[in-house]
Design a protein that fits this description.
The protein has two helices and 14 strands, in the order αβββββββββββββαβ. By secondary structure, it is mainly beta. The strands form two sheets. An eight-stranded antiparallel barrel has the order 1-2-3-6-7-9-12-14. Strands 10-11 form a two-stranded antiparallel sheet. A hairpin with a 2-residue loop joins strand 4 and strand 5. The longest helix has 24 residues.
């Protein structure tokens, strides 16, 4: 069954590249647009390492990619909002439990760039808001130090890069698992009440490593 699935992917990819070649060399101004690929990543993980807090925040969500099959191979990615909880620890002491929501501000957009007979380089930009919904001191759920959800004052802009896999047997496999990485600068937080001046020095700022893993 897996061989059949991989063969199907190879046929689809080959058909897409054939359409691309036809589009590139077409001379008629009335030529129809080449078909697009749609990939549903039902198993998407977004891991963000909050540099100042030393905390890994892991979101699980779903994503849908639209890939144009002619140069410049435009990509559009729509990821669903996601919520998660993470523990902020100092040695073995739990300082607090954080409940955080990731809210995309529109789709991610970018391109897949051919590198000759090999993988395609991917670069996309995603704008998103980050919302701190709860801060529970010592992990005590009955207490929440954030009266109303506090959110980044402006959307963060995250640039992600990676490669679409390639093999001699299967060619470029748009349906294969894809890993994208980037660094997130978290804008200042607003609406956090009395905690705002305390949170910003430790929660906002540059250098927050992000890894996005996309799987069907």
């Amino acid at each position: 069954m897996r061989r059949f699935t991989r063969l199907r992917r190879t046929v689809i990819t080959a058909a897409t590249l054939s359409a691309t070649a036809a589009a590139v060399f077409a001379t008629s101004v009335h030529a129809e647009a080449a078909p697009s690929l749609y990939i549903n990543h039902k198993h998407t993980t977004v891991t963000t390492h909050l540099k100042n807090l030393g905390v890994d925040v892991v979101f699980t969500t779903t994503e849908r990619t639209k890939a144009e099959s002619m140069p410049p191979f435009a990509l559009e990615s729509k990821i669903e909002p996601a919520q998660t909880r993470a523990a902020w620890r100092l040695a073995d002491l739990r300082i607090a439990t954080l409940q955080i929501k990731m809210i995309p501000d529109g789709p991610a957009t970018g391109n897949a760039t051919p590198t000759g007979q090999g993988p395609m380089d991917v670069k996309v930009t995603q704008k998103l808001d980050i919302q701190i919904q709860r801060i529970e001191p010592l992990g005590i759920k009955e207490f929440n130090l954030v009266g109303a959800p506090c959110t980044t004052s402006t959307p963060a802009e995250l640039v992600l890069t990676g490669q679409i896999p390639f093999s001699e047997d299967e060619g470029t496999d748009f349906f294969a698992p894809l890993t994208l990485k980037g660094d997130l600068t978290i804008p200042p937080l607003a609406g956090c009440g009395a905690l705002t001046p305390l949170l910003n020095p430790i929660a906002s700022g540059p250098g927050n490593a992000v890894t996005v893993e996309l799987k069907e």
